[in-house]
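User: I'm curious whether this sequence folds into something compact or stays loose and floppy. Could you predict its structure so I can see for myself?
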Amino acid sequence: MSESMVLPRRHWQFNPRLLIFSASLLPLLLALGVWQVQRAAEKEALLQQWQRQAVTLSWQELAGPGLGNEQENGLESGQPVTLTGHYDERSWLLDNRTRDGVAGYEVLTLFQPDQGPALVVNRGWLRAPASRDVLPVFPSPGGEVTIRGRLADYPEPPVLAQSDGAQGWPRRVQALHQADAAAEASTVVSKVLRLRGSDEPGAFRVDWQPDYMGPQTHYGYAVQWFSLALVLVVLTIVASYRKTGANNDNDNG
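Assistant: Here's the prediction. I'll summarize afterward.
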């Protein structure tokens, strides 16, 4: 067999810059993966806590006396809640909410459970009338109803105008602060309830973006980070080998 037909071989060739880059990036990727696993474990523990509370605690025990009282338990955004009670006649129309390019409002109504403090329920999106001077007319269920949803923060974006100054109901607002709700119901909790779906009593168009990241999402992110770390190791090893042989030993002329 002639020398020209010798198959090329690979050998390890030390590349300081490549190894420094990989050694710097690999711990970061692994740390991000571990962090996502830890976050998933925290969310699983939180879900278990919520499930225990749903079985063992009433709304009155879970929420405490309401806003401004230090005994209010740790209500958290994303926490699932089921309540039985009745809608109040007082509603706020959260302005400048659009769906599919159509102007409208999100309807927020006081809800009084059978036991425990009141809370504000975000009932979803409602189309605005053609005239800005006209507020929409919408029904509210009468009597006792059972509603389900997840807790969320009050819609308190930084705005210049808080309302249009109307005194009747419903009231058009640019934002709703806890103090506004507390002025109407002295025992109101520090979270808003977003209804679970459009089939809930009193709901309009409910199409919230997910506001709670579950454990499976974190595990998915962890798999991505660990996969990137594995790819980095493999590419570093492959790039550190060079072919040598009769057809490649021409560096010296």
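Summary: The first strand starts at residue 9 and ends at 12. The beta strands are 9-12, 80-99, 102-113, 118-127, 145-152, 171-173, 188-195, 241-244.
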